[in-house]
Design brief:
The chain is built from 16 helices and no strands. It is mainly alpha-helical.
């Protein structure tokens, strides 16, 4: 592992810790006006959202750029990686400084001054150059995760540019045009980083199981095709309130559900092929991947209910939508990324606190479940009181909802404690000492499956 990769992983973990801290503070700033006077909610919320977004993207790219060296058997130019990381992190620091000064101006999820999108774009181009220099040396028949990484990186660039089209005057001429493009691009961007994250999960599965067949064959490539379709079309249910044909939303939901079902099938196949010795050899990374599987089940069930029009009438735009987003962001993406970082840092070989790590994982899972259920209950109450009871006064609507949100905030503290311990422990391990390698060059993928 290069020094740049270590700092890349460390930066991702620092962003995870910031997202947890800002999220807990934002929850209490929303519920307690006196708390908000000291730490304004309007500054904490975008700081939390941006930190979570940057954690997902930075963690995903750390895995892709590290695993590519082993997969392609070639380490591309480190200065390009360092250039990406330096420019990317400098822009993130500028984003948080802008929030602290109360300077906004962007759009949902990217609420910082729009000028900062330019260095982010330049940083991503450096990342693409670094990746593609190794990608051109790929084998004639690369495994599936190579295609997932590649489509994720390329489509992130496309969706990032699309997300910034609002800066052109023509897109701002009508509210409906601008908001539709925003919802569409943000929905597709989720598919882009999911490709990178799921690709890394698939890579780790092949290494733990020693079975390259997991990443090859019709089922595996059907998963990639569905993921790519999901990336390009799952935004259909993000534009629910826009005047569009119903079949677009129905097709988008169908693609999303099919991808998740197939992903569960692949993970279960991976679990079935593990013998006891291999499973315990890589226990920590394995357990985080299985934790993600649990949340795929839960989020899939919630998403299926949300896709029913009669239910969606009550849930759209409520805390249930937030529950779905948090289940995906924390339960699925974060669990996969933490497992990926454990794998990259060789946690089981280098650390001696596996028992405490497992306790922290279980505590995080339990806290997240309470957190998720509280959001669902709050959404049901809000949707019912607005839609069924016809209550128009917002304060009256929110009276019982606020009580449930206190449970949500306390559960958020639990997530901060559990996941915070995991993040701090991995950050210390990352910065503790360089990782030794058995050879000066990475091992090609075809030589490492049965080691």
């Amino acid at each position: 592992m290069t020094r740049t990769t270590r700092w890349h992983i460390a930066a991702a973990l620092a962003l995870l810790l910031l997202a947890l801290l800002f999220g807990a503070l934002a929850a209490f700033a929303y519920l307690l006006p006196s708390f908000s006077d000291a730490l304004p909610f309007q500054q904490l919320r975008p700081a939390h959202v941006s930190a979570a977004l940057f954690w997902i993207i930075t963690g995903a790219t750390a895995g892709v750029l590290h695993y590519k060296d082993d997969t392609f058997g070639y380490r591309s130019h480190v200065p390009l990686h360092a250039g990406f990381l330096g420019l990317w992190l400098a822009t993130i620091v500028a984003v948080f400084m802008a929030y602290g000064l109360g300077r906004f101006g962007g759009r949902e999820y990217w609420e910082f001054p729009p000028l900062l999108a330019l260095p982010m774009l330049l940083a991503w181009l450096l990342l693409m150059a670094h990746y593609l220099l190794a990608w051109v040396r790929r084998s004639p028949d690369p495994p599936l995760y190579v295609w997932m990484w590649t489509t994720g990186i390329v489509f992130f660039l496309i969706t990032f540019i699309e997300q910034n089209l609002w800066q052109l005057p023509w897109f701002r001429e009508t509210y409906m045009r601008e908001i539709t493009v925003q919802w569409k691009s943000n929905g597709a961007m989720v598919g882009a980083w999911n490709q990178m994250i799921y690709g890394s999960a698939l890579y780790i599965m092949t290494r733990i199981s020693g079975d390259e067949g997991i990443a090859r064959g019709p089922k595996a490539f059907l998963f990639w095709f569905l993921g790519l379709s999901n990336l390009m079309f799952n935004w259909g249910h993000h534009i629910y309130n826009a005047p569009t044909a119903s079949w677009i939303r129905h097709l988008a939901y169908g693609i999303s559900m099919a991808e998740w079902i197939l992903f569960i099938n692949i993970i279960r196949g991976f679990k079935a092929k593990l013998d006891e010795n291999r499973r315990h050899k890589h226990l920590t990374a394995y357990r985080f991947l299985i934790a993600a599987e649990v949340w795929v089940f839960l989020n899939l069930f919630l998403a299926l209910l949300m896709s029913i029009p009669a239910i969606n009438r009550y849930t759209h735009g409520t805390h249930i939508t937030v529950a779905h987003a948090m289940g995906a962001t924390i339960g699925i993406n974060t669990m996969i990324l933490v497992g990926s970082i454990c794998w990259m840092l060789r946690y089981d070989e280098r650390a001696s606190d596996q028992r405490w790590m497992e306790r922290a994982r279980k505590f995080t899972m339990a806290s997240l479940l309470v957190f998720w259920i509280a959001l669902i209950v709050a959404g049901i109450l809000k949707g019912w009181r607005i839609t069924a009871l016809g209550i128009e006064d917002f304060q009256q609507v929110m009276q019982p909802v606020t009580q449930v949100l206190f449970v949500f905030a306390v559960a958020g503290i639990g997530i901060l404690v559990g996941l915070g311990y995991i993040g701090i422990r991995l950050l210390c391990l990352c910065l503790k000492s360089p990782l030794s390698t058995s050879s000066g060059a990475p091992t090609p993928v075809t030589q490492s499956f049965n080691q």
